[in-house]
Fold each of these.
Amino acid sequence: RPYKCSECGKRLRSSSELLKHQQAHTGETPFHCTDCGKGFTLGSALTRHRRIHARERPHKCEECGKRFSHDSQLAAHQR
């Protein structure tokens, strides 16, 4: 892993991964929700967030049938 973050020392595989990682340190949020304006460092985080507005709930509890927009919510429900 030749690319090292100067801020925390984490090593990454590519320069693009390093750039994405460094946004966490700078607080830069280039991806913004068009519905509420909330900013995100990663496009994938924005995609996940958009499920809230779209009312998508792809994660289903097989025990009770309740659905969740995020897998972490389902995991918390199942504990």
Amino acid sequence: MDPELVAYLDRRFEAVDRRFSEMDRRFEELRTEMRASDADTRRHFDVVAEDLKSRIQLVAEGVLLVDEKLERFRTEVHERFEAIDRRFLRLETRVSALEVTVAQALRHREN
């Protein structure tokens, strides 16, 4: 083979090898940056997730407190309605007794 051609091809292959080496270096830099970015993103996500978890816990506790208050309110209202029902029944009984008394008085008066 022609020595000039061999020298030319050697130079070209060396240039290609340098370019491949440069590309390998750039890819490695990108991989390193991506790993760092991935780690930063993961840490940020963990912080945000922990904050959300805390907030959700607070909301859940608030819901439980409201549920307990609502249950106490329901019980209290139920008891008050029962008391009102008892009073109403007593008043109905008294009104019925008065109606009977008035009816008897009117009959007695007519006689």
Amino acid sequence: MKLRISGLILFLFFILSGFLTFASEDWPMWRCDVNRSASTSCQLADNLYLQWQVNYSPRDPVWDDPLNRNLMQYDRVLEPVVAGNMVFIGFNDKDKVAALDIGSGREIWRFYADGPVRLPLAVYKDKLLFTGDDGYCYCLNTGDGSVVWKKLLAPSENRLLGNKRLISMWPARGGVVVEDGVIYTAASIFPLMGTFIYALDAGTGNIIWKNEGTGSNYILQPHNSPAFADIAPQGAFTISGDMLL
């Protein structure tokens, strides 16, 4: 049976009466930080109440077969990030990113990519960073949603029908993580077609380094037969010390 998440209501973090008090303590990326700790030094207010809510359509997860659906759940729910007085959300059904006012839930701006936005966004200074199934990494101005730069992570613009959508042959599903002005992300989900892992300059999108050899390793597979395979990034990257996970 196809799984659908129905009746979705965006309560987000903004049911908390004390959240506005902590504007200096942002939640700029998935699970707050590069370690994905899901924690912050801020404390919640004693009295919590609903300030606003916004209704969105049900999510349509990328994988609907039981095996992949359970293993890869990265786009089953909305994953908002917060910076200053703004909330940023990516949509896998509308191919868009929206910025909301944290005090009222009012939409400030929206931006449309050329494919589903499935992975969580990240904010670095005044820049909003994310990837899409169109094979691109995007950098937008957080204030007005204008494009600062965008970088094709896939080796070409070739498209195909995948997950019921027209997407890149190498969709960018390596969710961005950013540290010290460097973005880490990736494209391609099938190692046989090549996997492309990048470190990009957050200010310009220029390539700092690129790893495109991990998909060519001939290794033993779980089914006890060797094949050309290796890393197939689908999910948000994590940084632990000098390791990119």
